[in-house]
Protein backbone atom coordinates (compact mmCIF):
# COMPACT_ATOMS: atom_id res chain seq x y z
CA UNK A 1 0.00 0.00 0.00
CA UNK A 2 1.40 3.38 -0.95
CA UNK A 3 0.92 6.34 1.35
CA UNK A 4 -1.64 7.91 -0.97
CA UNK A 5 -3.76 4.74 -0.87
CA UNK A 6 -4.53 5.67 2.73
CA UNK A 7 -6.42 8.75 1.53
CA UNK A 8 -10.03 8.06 0.61
CA UNK A 9 -12.71 10.26 -0.87
CA UNK A 10 -16.33 9.24 -0.54
CA UNK A 11 -19.05 11.55 -1.90
CA UNK A 12 -21.43 10.92 1.02
CA UNK A 13 -18.86 11.23 3.79
CA UNK A 14 -17.48 14.47 5.22
CA UNK A 15 -18.76 16.42 2.22
CA UNK A 16 -16.54 14.46 -0.17
CA UNK A 17 -13.38 15.79 1.45
CA UNK A 18 -10.26 13.60 1.55
CA UNK A 19 -10.18 11.43 4.69
CA UNK A 20 -7.85 8.94 6.28
CA UNK A 21 -8.65 5.28 5.55
CA UNK A 22 -12.43 5.74 5.26
CA UNK A 23 -12.58 7.22 8.77
CA UNK A 24 -14.18 10.53 9.60
CA UNK A 25 -10.79 12.16 10.07
CA UNK A 26 -10.08 14.59 7.25
CA UNK A 27 -6.66 15.20 5.78
CA UNK A 28 -7.16 18.87 6.60
CA UNK A 29 -7.75 17.98 10.26
CA UNK A 30 -4.32 16.33 10.43
CA UNK A 31 -2.64 19.16 8.54
CA UNK A 32 -4.24 21.82 10.73
CA UNK A 33 -3.08 20.04 13.88
CA UNK A 34 0.48 19.89 12.53
CA UNK A 35 0.34 23.54 11.48
CA UNK A 36 -0.94 24.43 14.94
CA UNK A 37 2.15 22.93 16.51
CA UNK A 38 0.91 19.49 17.52
CA UNK A 39 3.53 16.78 17.41
CA UNK A 40 2.99 13.47 15.72
CA UNK A 41 2.93 11.82 19.15
CA UNK A 42 0.22 14.22 20.37
CA UNK A 43 -1.95 13.57 17.31
CA UNK A 44 -1.59 9.81 17.67
CA UNK A 45 -2.47 10.04 21.37
CA UNK A 46 -5.58 12.13 20.64
CA UNK A 47 -6.66 9.91 17.72
CA UNK A 48 -5.75 6.32 18.62
CA UNK A 49 -7.17 4.98 15.33
CA UNK A 50 -4.55 6.94 13.39
CA UNK A 51 -1.18 5.46 12.50
CA UNK A 52 2.14 7.18 11.80
CA UNK A 53 1.72 6.39 8.10
CA UNK A 54 -1.60 8.27 8.09
CA UNK A 55 0.14 11.47 9.12
CA UNK A 56 2.78 11.00 6.43
CA UNK A 57 0.02 10.23 3.93
CA UNK A 58 -1.69 13.53 4.78
CA UNK A 59 1.54 15.42 4.10
CA UNK A 60 2.14 13.49 0.87
CA UNK A 61 -1.41 14.20 -0.30
CA UNK A 62 -0.99 17.91 0.37
CA UNK A 63 2.30 17.94 -1.53
CA UNK A 64 0.71 16.26 -4.56
CA UNK A 65 -2.23 18.67 -4.50
CA UNK A 66 0.07 21.68 -4.44
CA UNK A 67 2.45 20.39 -7.11
CA UNK A 68 0.96 21.98 -10.19
CA UNK A 69 2.27 24.60 -12.58
CA UNK A 70 1.50 28.20 -11.79
CA UNK A 71 0.47 30.22 -14.80
CA UNK A 72 1.12 33.92 -14.59
CA UNK A 73 -0.73 36.06 -17.08
CA UNK A 74 1.45 38.34 -19.15
CA UNK A 75 0.79 42.01 -18.65
Summarize the structure.
The chain is mostly helical and 75 residues long.
Written overview of the protein:
- This protein is mostly helical and 75 residues long.
- It has one domain: Winged helix-like DNA-binding domain superfamily/Winged helix DNA-binding domain (Arc Repressor Mutant, subunit A, Orthogonal Bundle), CATH 1.10.10.
- 41% of the residues lie in helices and 5% in strands.
- The protein has 3 helices and 2 strands; from the N terminus they run E-E-H-H-H.
- It has helices spanning 27-35, 40-46, 52-66; strands spanning 7-8, 19-20.
- A two-stranded antiparallel ribbon has the order 1-2.
- Helix 1 packs across helix 3.
- The longest helix is centred in the C-terminal third of the chain and has 15 residues, at 52-66.
- The radius of gyration is 14 Å and the shape is globular.
- The termini are far apart.
- The mean pLDDT is 93.
N-end to C-end Cα span: 46 Å
Number of helices: 3
Q: Helical amount among residues, as a percent range?
A: 40-55%
Major β-sheet profile:
2 strands, antiparallel
Radius of gyration: 14 Å
* Order of strands, widest sheet: 1-2
Order of helices and strands: EEHHH
How many separate domains?
1
Low-confidence segments, given as residue ranges, are: none
CATH fold node name: Arc Repressor Mutant, subunit A
Question: Which structural class should the secondary elements be placed in?
Answer: mainly alpha
| Outline type | globular
Name given to the CATH architecture: Orthogonal Bundle
The CATH class is Mainly Alpha
